[in-house]
Task: inverse folding
């Protein structure tokens, strides 16, 4: 096995077996693994392993493709598969690789939990409104136009409905 690894491989030729394919693509595998794990070296071996899988997939698929017929080198074709496999691993581990929040920062006990007092007071003010005014605000929040609100609630025109809505919003937020 060591003799096979020490054997000089011509990277400009297409590989004859899977081991030769891995040897040809090893610089690509290592380079892309280093890029993916720039700040997370603990995942380096995982990315190298995925690179190997990409090379093996490329070796299985390369024979008879348009790339082979057009004279592309195997390494150019394999590079695409190396990237695909390593990218899939990155997407699976993305949560872990980009997690900047420390575990002890997420503390939802009663001492650290802050309530939005403004929201509570707005809800209390909303509850004090007449039923018709509450329905007007809810209809606008649901996306109805002022013209629809004016027709359903008995306003003379959409301008009166809009004016009432603005008045209610000011009353709630005060």
Result:
């Amino acid at each position: 096995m060591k003799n096979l690894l020490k054997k000089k491989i011509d990277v400009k030729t297409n590989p004859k077996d899977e081991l030769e394919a891995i040897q040809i693509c090893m610089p690509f595998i290592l380079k892309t693994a280093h890029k993916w794990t720039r700040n997370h070296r603990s995942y380096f071996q995982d990315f190298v392993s995925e690179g190997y899988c990409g090379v093996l997939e490329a070796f299985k698929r390369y024979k008879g493709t348009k790339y082979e017929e057009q004279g592309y080198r195997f390494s150019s074709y394999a590079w695409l598969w190396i990237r695909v496999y390593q990218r899939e691993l990155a997407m699976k581990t993305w949560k872990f690789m980009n997690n900047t929040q420390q575990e002890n920062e997420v503390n939802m006990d009663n001492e650290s939990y802050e309530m939005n007092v403004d929201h509570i007071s707005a809800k209390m003010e909303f509850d004090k409104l007449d039923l018709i005014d509450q329905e007007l605000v809810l209809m606008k929040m649901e996306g109805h136009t002022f013209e629809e609100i004016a027709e359903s609630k008995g306003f003379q025109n959409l301008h009166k409905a809009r004016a009432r809505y603005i008045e209610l919003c000011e009353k709630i937020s005060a």
